[in-house]
């Protein structure tokens, strides 16, 4: 009789363990396939208390020494401050009127934009000072990022984009060029 009661208790225990394992499995699968909208915000963007850090990203590029009809200038700025999250774009070229757009963006859009840059190690470069050497007709373009107290900046001329050792920086510049808001 004692063996029968003992085996029923073991059976109940095994049944409970199976249920627990099943729910654990379902939970892990559902979090694995969660939508990108539920993705985590990169820890670099928030303080330990959970507040957003101030941040600024600037990419500035001009055409350099080309015929006047091919001149262009582009600037993209992404910013987080006490007033919110902002995106701005300025573009000029000889084929169309200059455009300047500044708009407020939501925190998910902001986090996605910065996450893309942080995944490419945008903060890993040293903070370069403005090049002293001036070359007539050549413009220095730059990318800079500041998140909290961490910052990075690099300068380049368009020919640098063709260099093999410039690959990581080129990937960051490509991200900035693809932003369409």
Automatic annotation (TrEMBL):
Name the record gives this protein: Uncharacterized protein
Lineage of the organism: Bacteria, Pseudomonadati, Spirochaetota, Spirochaetia, Leptospirales
Species: Leptospira ilyithenensis
């Amino acid at each position: 009789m004692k063996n029968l009661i003992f085996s029923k208790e073991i059976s109940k225990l095994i049944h409970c363990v199976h249920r627990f394992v099943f729910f654990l499995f379902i939970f892990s699968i559902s979090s694995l396939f969660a939508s990108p909208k539920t993705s985590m915000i990169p820890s670099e963007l928030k303080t330990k208390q959970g507040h957003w850090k101030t941040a600024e990203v600037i990419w500035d590029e001009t055409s350099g020494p080309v015929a006047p009809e091919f001149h262009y200038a582009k600037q993209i700025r992404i910013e987080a401050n006490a007033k919110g999250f902002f995106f701005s774009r300025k573009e000029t070229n000889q084929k169309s009127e200059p455009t300047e757009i500044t708009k407020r963006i939501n925190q998910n859009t902001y986090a996605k934009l910065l996450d893309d840059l942080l995944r490419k190690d945008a903060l890993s470069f040293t903070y370069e000072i403005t090049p002293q050497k001036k070359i007539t007709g050549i413009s220095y373009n730059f990318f800079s990022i500041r998140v909290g107290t961490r910052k990075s900046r690099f300068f380049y001329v368009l020919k640098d984009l063709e260099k093999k050792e410039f690959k990581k920086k080129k990937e960051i510049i490509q991200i900035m060029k693809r932003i369409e808001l």
